[in-house]
Structure to design on (410 residues):
């Protein structure tokens, strides 16, 4: 066995203690110059984290966006929705996707980048350079804080604003008779009292083969059929004008059938036109003050707990972005380095995040019925974050007389 010792350290060098069975010796090795100062390492790791987060976010958002957009295809195929309006619909759904995707993307990016650094031995070099657990986790924590602030902006403003516009546009489109009656060959129930069927619609907007069943007066239901007609707007509201048709009615007392032929007949639909104006705002459409302080409206009082639970979920939910990242760092950085890989630690972090996400959803659902579950929503985040930081910052106990990797020489 042959050993070589340096009599004195060089400026900026590292001291590594080693032994080959005899007296312990010291090896002096120069610090890697490519690491640079601590802020440079933070920028290096943070750059990789942000790139990975952006990629995962785009991938997940596109996948969810595509599945949700398929529900709106009906508006294009059957109702003639313009492509520009369809894109507006889809764009307004984007904030609701990002609020769910960003915390998961941040967690996945942190696991991927730090696992890659460990497998490429970059993490070993950083530890040898004297970086502590907190210094190693600093880039991921910075990313977690940035994502948390972004999710807060989405949750408190962009989500209710976009979802409110989406529901208003959807409601206005459904209330547009020219779109509703364009469903050729389909019996369309406009309201509980009116059903319309159109066999064909010409390019000029003329309706052909019209059938209208009017049951607004339950004692005198009326069925009207016409060869052609049109939907027109008036100051009193929308109306269907039919030509060359008949009006069929059955007398309720006698059961006598009466048939009236007409050259021109008009059906007023003003009542339906007024219906959408009194639409109740759903919880996702409301801003935080509207959720925490429901109004005196009957439906607001009926769904009071649901509104309050949604408000507290808007406050607690974004914090999971930071919690997920710290859990990932605690799993990958705590303990000693294992050259066989970190698959078990990665799986453990994923299991913890999945369980925590399930608990969050369960508590949110429970808070819709019991106000006592609201404090548990805050407690879950605080306890999870505290335990994750405890595991991350604690010092692992080293086994006695354990040589450092790479310290022996032959």
């Amino acid at each position: 066995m042959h050993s070589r010792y340096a009599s004195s350290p060089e400026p900026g060098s590292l001291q590594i203690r080693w032994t080959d069975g005899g007296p312990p010796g010291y090896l002096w090795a120069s610090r890697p110059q490519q690491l640079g100062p601590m802020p440079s390492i933070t920028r290096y790791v943070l750059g990789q984290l942000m790139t990975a987060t952006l990629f995962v976010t785009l991938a997940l958002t596109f996948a969810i966006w595509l599945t949700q957009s398929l529900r709106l295809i009906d508006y294009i195929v059957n109702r003639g929705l313009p492509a520009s309006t369809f894109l507006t619909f889809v764009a307004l759904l984007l904030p609701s996707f990002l609020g769910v995707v960003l915390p998961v993307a941040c967690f996945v990016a942190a696991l991927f980048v730090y696992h890659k650094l460990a497998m490429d031995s970059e993490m070993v070099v950083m530890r040898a350079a004297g970086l502590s657990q907190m210094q190693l986790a600093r880039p991921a924590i910075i990313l977690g804080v940035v994502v948390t602030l972004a999710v807060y902006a989405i949750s408190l403003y962009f989500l209710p604003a976009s979802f409110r516009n989406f529901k208003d546009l959807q409601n206005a489109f459904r209330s547009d008779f020219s779109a509703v009656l364009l469903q050729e060959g389909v019996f369309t129930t406009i309201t509980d009292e009116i059903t319309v069927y159109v066999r064909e619609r010409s390019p000029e907007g003329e309706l052909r083969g019209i059938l209208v069943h009017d049951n607004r007066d339950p004692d005198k239901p009326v069925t009207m059929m016409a060869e052609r007609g049109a939907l027109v707007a008036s100051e009193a509201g929308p109306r269907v004008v039919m030509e060359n048709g008949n009006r069929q009615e059955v007398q309720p007392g006698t059961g006598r059938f009466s048939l009236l032929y007409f050259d021109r007949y008009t059906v007023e639909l003003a009542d339906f036109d007024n219906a959408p104006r009194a639409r109740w705002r759903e919880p996702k459409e409301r801003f935080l003050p509207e959720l925490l302080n429901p109004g005196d409206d009957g439906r607001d009082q009926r769904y009071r707990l649901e509104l309050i639970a949604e408000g507290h979920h808007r406050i607690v939910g974004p914090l999971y972005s930071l919690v997920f990242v710290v859990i990932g760092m605690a799993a990958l950085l705590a303990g000693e380095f294992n050259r066989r890989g970190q698959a078990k630690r990665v799986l453990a972090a994923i299991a913890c995040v999945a369980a925590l996400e399930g608990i969050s959803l369960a508590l949110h659902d429970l808070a819709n019925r019991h106000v006592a579950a609201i404090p548990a929503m805050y407690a879950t985040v605080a306890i999870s974050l505290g335990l994750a930081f405890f595991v991350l910052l604690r010092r692992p106990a080293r086994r006695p007389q354990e040589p450092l990797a790479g310290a022996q020489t032959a």
